[in-house]
Amino acid sequence: MLSQMRNFAKSWVATILLGVLALAFGLWGVGDIFSGNTPTNVATVGSHEISLEEFQREYRTEMRQRSQQGDFTPDMARAMNLGRQLLDRSMIRLALDNLTGNLKLTVSDALVAAQIRNMPAFNGPLGTFDKGTFLRVAAENDFSEQGFINLIRSETARDQLLRAVQGGFEMPAGYVNAIYAFQSEVRGADYFELPASAAGVIPAPTDAQLTAYVKAHSATFSTPEYREVSYAIATPADVMGKIPAVTEAQLKQQYDARKESYVIPEKRDVEQITFPTEAEAKAARAKIDSGTSFAQIGKE
């Protein structure tokens, strides 16, 4: 019964969406399995937790369903790492619950009640929904009445979200063809083996045959052209010790020979103010002589 309720979540579209949601675990934070900080929970995704009791209940349900389909032992469950698979599936469901909560998706009580009443597993002797049968079947699956109602509410919200994503979704034809070809195409090959003895005795090639072959494959037998370069490096440190000391007479001789390049003509800076009359010019000169700056005279 519970497996039928999850059939949609096993479709390939849902698998793609759940894989993307699993990447968001790092944002919400996923508690480690049986961690010392939360001894009563096996995992935490966002605001939702997976209690040890819930995990054990789902594990027992899965074991019971697999046993009904054939011989399935606890050793087989451990070999296929069934606990890890169930925990991953539960964490993906909680990730979807976080998403439906963030999107404020809700399911009415009337819809939840209608879904439960339409489940054949809860039909009584009269072929209609029976409250006693409902409580008994829920208890056999380790659910209380309210716990099963909450489960159906969460399943319905997730189902609505996934159906909205799946609606109108079509895989590109090229991608479908590639997958079909990968899964179904086969190749047939016919071959035969020739032993070395089948070639018989191969005569030695003549010089003319070798010459013709080398000419036809000259690039294979040619060596790229190279250049050989010889060079020497002389640094100042290599020649400093070989330069003789310079005397004063040599310095003076070189200075006299290039004296013109060392002599710089003397220059003067001239500041000038033009006055309308000679009297005004003399008055300004008197102020300068008494301590007034040239710039102040120019400003005035």
Question: Which parts are unreliable, with pLDDT below 50 for 5 consecutive residues or more?
Answer: 1-14, 23-36
- Strand arrangement within the widest β-sheet reads 1-2
Number-wise, the strands total: 2
Mean pLDDT: 81
User: Which structural class should the secondary elements be placed in?
Assistant: mainly alpha
Query: Looking at the structure, what is the overall shape?
Result: flat
How is this structure best described in words?
The termini are far apart. The chain has a two-stranded antiparallel ribbon. Helix 6 packs across helix 9 (145-166) and helix 7 (109-117) crosses helix 9 (145-166). It is mostly helical and 300 residues long. Mean pLDDT is 81; it is low at 1-14 and 23-36. The longest helix has 22 residues, at 145-166. The chain contains 16 helices and two strands.
